[in-house]
Structures are given as structure tokens and as C-alpha cells.
């Protein structure tokens, strides 16, 4: 939230004027309500751009439509080119800035008139000239637009709502500690459930994984925050996929835990995120009505998939290929078991397993579903919230992704939906998270991650 000294609104107050560009609204259609007592303006060109985004099933289409509806409902008795309150008791006001040209600095003359961005800059510059006693701030998810604004002596900021403070310190879900009580470690090894108070471990307020180790032995364990107990984590294979390190064992434990309804797995390419999620889903296939594996489509070169040749299946298959590759790899683990291979093929044929883009699954009932969302770092916080809020009874949702490999414009490691979820859900009793750091794809792949 954007806070400031609480003053009564008037043209000479210390409240600011925030000018939002299209990228902010496509990220969060409720952004206009996030600025407390400050005024919010939107250039008329933003409405034109939103009109181009209003049709479709993508997140940005949803955000565009909802913003248009929000402004339409709030402005029933008002002209939107004049300041008016969006809500009955709101301190700040809102208006749409017409295609005005500032007198002192004209962005279109400096940068050209071919781009809407330069006309949006002019709208902000016009407000700055019109309100010399107030601070005017352009808010944009577009770094280049912010730099251009600053070059014109115009304040510019990223939209901070929903953004975590430091992605490099994001919750990892695991802690390694030196532990010397061999008797307690032996009890854990014998699958005894132990009260956390006996272990004298650091205080944790979330479901959490531990590596207890010393020179003689090492035990991996899970701390259940609901009953404050610790138990051993087994490293047994799941659907013929053998965990290759403690982190993968932690991920499997969370994915198979029936008390955990929401799981996030974050990690570099090759750490096994999607493979483990899919193997655990297949292991529990009888407990769920269906298995959904999906991922958001990030258009190539920012072009819509409509430009690709072929029917719908041919258009989206390239985006779904990594998921099919993981399923094929699992199937290959049963080369000596034709019955199981046939079973996997049948699950696909009968759509017990369904692999489809996220946009194609929207609107469906998510009840008794094992729902895997791959590449979740390309989702906005609002989309993550929308997916989780639609979960019905007996559904488990798994988000996997790498917050440092984002393909969506205007998202970064701190503002994407996966980071937002990890930071905000970490203390919930239905949630568990693990960050996978060790690549297991191949030594060559590890070289790329570590050195290049």
C-alpha cells in the first residue's frame, strides 16, 4: 500500500498524483484502489490499449475487462475526465487524462509520436505542469518507460503492491543444522514421532523440513507445525522415480502428504520439480477424480498464439512439450512392465490425466483434482490467488517454477505470483514449500547453471 500523511484532499495538499500506465492495470486491475488518500490518474491512451486487451482468456484480458467494469460502475454519475472518488468514502480521487500536450517538455517531440508510451508520458508531464505544488509520479511495470520518465525529470516508480522485498532471501522450506543428540536421531531413524520441544531446534512457525547432521550420521525430517512434532522423511521411490538428494525427498514428502493441500516447489532447471510433482500425482491417482497438469502460455516474441499455424492442439503443443517429456520419462521407467505402461496410456486416453494450457482449464470445477501448475513464475499474484480460490473439496494444488527464469514482460523475481505465494503462505498449516537447488539432469546441465 502507498501511505502518506493523512490530509484532507485539495489541490494544494501534500497528497501525490499517481499516473498509472497500462502495464500496471494488466498486472492488477484493482491498482487504482491501492494508493490510500492520493489521487490516481489514467491517460486516455491506456483505455484505448485496454480496449485491445479486453477479449480473450488470458490473465491480462481478465484484468482489462475488470478494470473497465470497475471504472464504469464508479463513474455512473460522474464525468471521468474530472476528479471524482472511486468509492463513497475514499479520500483520493480518480480521473482520466485526455490526450493533453505539456507546454515545457513534449515527450512525443523528443522520442517520436509512433508509440503510445510517449503520449502516456505527456499525460503525466501535463499533470505535473497543471499541479506545480504536488508531486506527480508515473507508476509503470515497464523499466524502459520509467527510465524515459526520469530522463524528463518526472518521478517514476514500479508498482510495489504484491511485491516481496528480497527474492534472494525467499523462504526455502528447509534448514540444515548441526545436531549431536544421537539418541534422538536414532529414535527418528526408527520412525518415532517426536515432540519438537525435545529436539531443541530453532522455533519455526511453518511446516518445515530439517537436515539434522553431525560427523557420525544424518537424518532428514519434517516438522509439523499443527502438532509441533517431528518425524523422519523417507527417501523411498515414488512411481519408480528415485529421489537423488534430500531436497527431492522433501518435495516427495510434501507432495504425498494428505494433510498438505497446497505445495510450491521452486528451483533451477533440471532440479526435478515437474517430474516429482507428476510422479507423485500418478502415485495418488486413485485418490483423485482427475490429474490436471498445466502451464501458462507465454507467447513467442510477445505474439499471440493465433499467429501460429494449425489447429488449437497444434498451436499449444510446443508449449506443453516439456510436460509430455516428463510423462514419457516416467513411462520409460516401466519398460519391463507392459501392464503399467498400458495403464498410463489409458489414463491419458480417458483424460484421467489432462495436459493443457492454463487458459483452457479456466472455468472448470477444481474438485477432487490433483492440480499441477508448471512455470508458475510467469503468473501474477492475482492469477495465483484466483486459481487457489477456485479449489473445491479434496483438491491438491501444486505450483512449480523458477523465479529467476521469467518469460512474462513486467514480472520479475520479486513481483511474480510464485514468489508472492511462497512469502505469504509459508505459515499456513495446509501449505508446504521446498526450494530445490541441486540439479540432477546431467553434469553438463549443472555446468550451465553454475558457471554460465
TrEMBL record:
The entry's keywords: ATP-binding, Nucleotide-binding
Record's GO cellular component terms: cytosol
A molecular function (GO) term: ATP binding
Pfam families reported for this sequence: PhoH (PF02562), PIN_4 (PF13638)
InterPro entries: P-loop_NTPase, PhoH, PhoH2-like, PIN-like_dom_sf, PIN_dom
Domain PIN: from-to ranges: 16-147
Family, similarity comment: In the N-terminal section; belongs to the PINc/VapC protein family.
Name of the molecule in the record: PhoH family protein
Native source organism of the sequence: Pedobacter cryotolerans
